[in-house]
Amino acid sequence: MKGYVQVYTGDGKGKTTAAIGLAMRAVGAGKRVWLLQFMKSKAYSEHAILPEVSPLLTVETLGKPYFIAKEGTLSEADKRALGEVVVFAPGAPPADYVADCRAGVEKARRGLVSGDYDVVILDEIIVALYFELISRADVESLLAARPTTTELVLTGRRAPDWLIERADLVTEMVPVKHYFEQGVANRKGIED
What we know:
This protein has 192 residues and is an alpha/beta fold. It is built from 7 helices and 8 strands, in the order βαβαββαβαβααβαβ.
């Protein structure tokens, strides 16, 4: 069966949730799935259950227990809602995050070419690209390494035009209304 490249992007809620839903559907069909989360630690509630779902599902994280953001990209309300945030000057992301994400790209490349997975989900890789933790060349190399039978899903806000053009399916999550605007912080089991 032919695999495709899917992108879930946009500022709305639901990109990771959609990717996890796809993972569950694929596992239910007997497919081998690898969910590699860039920029996320195991603090998210899905990690309490996903590793136990099936031996067909492999879950790994490449994150830190804090968020990062470029100067000028978050409002004070956003910062409060996110908790611990490290703000960096454009072009100067935290070196430890860069190292982890670059190692993650190499890990993703090895996983893609291994033949061990039918579906590979690179959650938040688009955000890693936006924050300059990885490069366009890194993502291009992953797209080139993908076997034609492997479904590849990339998630994260701010997908660049070139990636949208390369993808076979693009879903943009658009916020119409969100309780964050009323000062509601992340809720356990709903947002994290």
